[in-house]
Amino acid sequence: MKFIHISDTHLLGSSQLSLYGIDPDFRLKIALQSIQNSHKDAKFIAITGDLANDSDIRVYEKLCHIADNFEIPIYPILGNHDNREFFISYFPKFSSGNFVQYVKKIENKIFIFLDTLVENKPYGELCQERLNWLKSVLDEYKQEQKFIFMHHHPVDCGLYDMDNMGAFQTKKLFWDMLSRYENIKHISFGHIHRIMHSSRGSISMHSTRSTAFEVAYKPNSKKEYLTNEESPTYAIIDINSDGETRVHHHEYLDEDKIYLGVC
């Protein structure tokens, strides 16, 4: 089974033309064209938050139009730049109670989409209501292989601002809950605008670059630096029957610049 992971699209309202010198709307358009051309067999596309750059309601209208007309199902969640009320007004089917959390069962696998947004704050959390919802899902699907999507990184990433100001505040509660369940295979997250792979116990994890702008890796700095020198990516995730995941990160802007060779 294959799915595609996009993150941190930072789409703009019509009043803005560019963001840090680039057009995030155009970059998402090219990403979707690439996916349409090369990955029609993907079961879905997950977008792990920061859909909008500035919570402009026009972004959610735009994304709703894209999702309604795209051949592959698109499953979005919220990031710290997003507006929950605006999102739900265009995507009501993805809400559960007061939050944007939902489950998709595809074949014999369970895909869990979480809402870590604390509106108007850079950090994230799962409050008690959201944790209770997650527990009910894990209780319902104890035997099935489970895959989780969230915006904020559930493990430290080594970037000072991200691991402090932009941290996932309820990390301990989250991992304490997951430790009581089996068959949780993989977590896909966003927020850090970088490719990163990690693991905790038997659970593997990854993030992929933003389709907009990237965050430079400055491990000894207490400031966050942005860069457009690294090409945007989307991730291609293949899952075998045992739930093992294979992740490739595709730099789609220059995908035609290839040549024959032997390694």
Radius of gyration: 17 Å
Q: Helix count, per DSSP?
A: 6
Determine the fraction of residues in helical runs and give it as a percent range: 10-25%
Shape: globular
Low-confidence segments, given as residue ranges, are: none
What does the main sheet amount to? 6 strands, mixed
Mean pLDDT: 94
Cα distance spanning the termini: 28 Å
Structural category is: alpha/beta
Which percent range describes the beta-strand content?
15-25%
SSE topology string: EHEHEHEEHEHHEEEEEEE
How many β-strand runs?
13
Question: Biggest sheet, strands in spatial order?
Answer: 4-5-6-7-9-8
Plain-language structure description:
The structure is a single chain. The protein has a 6-stranded mixed β-sheet, with helices on one face. The protein has a 5-stranded mixed β-sheet with strand order 3-2-1-12-13, with no helix packed on it. Strands 10-11 form a two-stranded antiparallel sheet. Helix content is 23%, strand content 23%. The protein has helices spanning 24-38, 57-69, 84-90, 128-140, 160-163, 171-178; strands at 2-6, 45-48, 74-77, 102-106, 109-113, 145-150, 184-189, 196-200, 203-207, 214-215, 226-227, 234-239, 245-250. By secondary structure, it is α/β, with parallel strands linked by helices. The mean pLDDT is 94. A hairpin with a 5-residue loop joins strand 12 and strand 13 (245-250). The two termini are 28 Å apart. The protein is globular. It contains 6 helices and 13 strands.
